[in-house]
Every structure is written in structure tokens, then in C-alpha cells.
Amino acid sequence: MKHLLSLFIIIYIGAFAQETNSEWENYSESYNEETNAGLNFINTQRIDDLLIKKKRSNSNKVKVFRIQLYSGNRVGSSETKNRFKMLYPNIIVENSYEQPYFKTKVDAIRSRIEAEKKLKIYKKNFKHAFIFEEEVEIDKL
What we know:
Blueprint: H1 2-17, H2 22-30, H3 33-36, H4 44-58, E1 61-72, H5 74-87, E2 93-98, E3 101-109, H6 112-122, E4 130-137
Antiparallel strand pairs: 1-3, 1-4, 2-3
């Protein structure tokens, strides 16, 4: 009895699945060449540029110039951080690990010129310091 009921339901559903969509047929019959004559193409390069700008504006990261004071082992990175904090107590210094090195970084500066000025000051005490560009989350600033 269960099999007979299941078979009846499958056949019933299958019958309605084959129904045609008459609205679509009416639309395609009424379509003619005159409606196609007013078709305008949009400059896709400009749209792509706008999409890229939109993606950039939605990201929560900013490109900044940072100064790296040290790259090496954990002990050296910690010593560099402590030494920097003693010399410049009001400036935030950050240790990070990027395999296989521990790095000591300071500042997040928007312009290269300002970064060069800061580097000149830091080079007096940290000979191997250099500037690099990095994307930093806005929340960290």
C-alpha cells in the first residue's frame, strides 16, 4: 500500500513538472528587433575602476610606512624593544613573528618623507633600521 501511494505521488508531481510557462512564451513572441536597436553599451573599464575603489573604501586596512628596527631571534627582538622604550618612551613599539624571524617595528606613518625624518633619528641608535610599506588595520592605529 505504501509503495502504491508513493508511486501515485511521484506521478502526480511529475505531471506538473512538465507544465510550460506561458508568460515566457508570450514575452519572447512580443520581442522584436526594434527593442534591440536602443541597446547601449557601458564602458566596462570605468565600471571596473569604480568597483575597485568601492572595495578599497570598504577595507579596514590602510597602507602606511613603518620602520623596522630588528629582525632575528626572540631574545634580540625583546632586547631591541626594551632599548627603544628606554630611549623613546612615548612611542609604541611592536614585536611580531613572521616565520622564521621575530621583528621589531615602530610607527605607522602616512607619508614617505615623514618616515625618512623619523628613520634619520632612529638610525643614531639602531644602525640596521629601515623603512618598509605595510597594510595595517585601522583598529591598530
